[in-house]
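Onboarding guide, step 5: your first structure request.
Type a short instruction followed by the sequence, for example:

Predict the 3D structure of this protein.
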Amino acid sequence: MTYQARRYLLMTVDPVHIGTGGYRLGRVDLAIAREPGTHLPKIPGTSLAGVARAYAAARYEKLRCAGQGQPRKDTAGKVIPNTDHCGEAACPICYTFGYAKGDEGSGYAGTVSLFDATIALFPVHSLAGPVWATTPGRLREAGFVVTGPAPAPDAAVVTGGWNKPLNLGWLMLPTTGGAQVQPPGPCWLGEAEPAWQAIQNRIVLVDEGLFSQVVNANLEVRTSVSIDPFTGAAATGALFTYEAIPRAAWLAFDVVEDDYRRDPKKPWPVDKTHLGKPLGETWASPHDVAAAGLALAEWLGVGGMGTRGFGRIRLMGHWRPDQRLDQQGGAQ
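The system replies with structure tokens like these:
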């Protein structure tokens, strides 16, 4: 059995708020999900997997296969037929993401795993205009090739021609040039390459110890208030603040396909159409199903505050990492 991985780059088209649930004491009332060790914001893999399944089911016009597979009931408590996962072997949604047959207790695990999306390039306002802060380690982990001097703990290295001290929010750092950042080969999707060309000479490399300070000091924070439906004015005591990853941030995440159900001697056992309607594209593997769902997130979004203009993300590129694991865990 072979495990195949794709590494994706995505860019936030709008601010993205993935909440942690409930109010918290601190800078804002509604905080976003973070990595425990670095305290850096992230988009959890559960959020990506949920929207990938829901949007892929919408594209396949089989909404019953979205969600958790729990059958719906009418007002009398009677189960409504065909409201849980279909569980068919030829259904690309159930095959890719797994299914549970409601009260029957049967099902299969999914054949793809979506992991957390971590920040690779973070937009910050500066004297030089918008720049994208990052670290050499984070870029290399995402698959970029980074050359040039390493940033000192109290200085930054830039990819452009800026040769003056540079502010990253409240933090002023001396800068040196000579850094070069190259993407991992011809990986771009659609019209993503112009977006990379626009920022590749505006990248600022900082030390790992400073990066979390830069990011958390420059998150988008908004204030909202509930409206009293009778007066049309702000409701008393309903003021709250929430934070978000700003637009134009770049994140990286992995999708790993473990197609344990597939017979290598047979083609992928999934219908190419649903109800006789062509998909308009070929889903040749579970990877393709997941990518088709994620592509709709550019318009339908991920996370909370969607009615406030939050949530849209755009897939910028993907590639196969060099490491490919076989059944024994060895590299091919």
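Each response can be followed by summary notes, for example: Confidence is low (pLDDT under 50) at residues 323-332.
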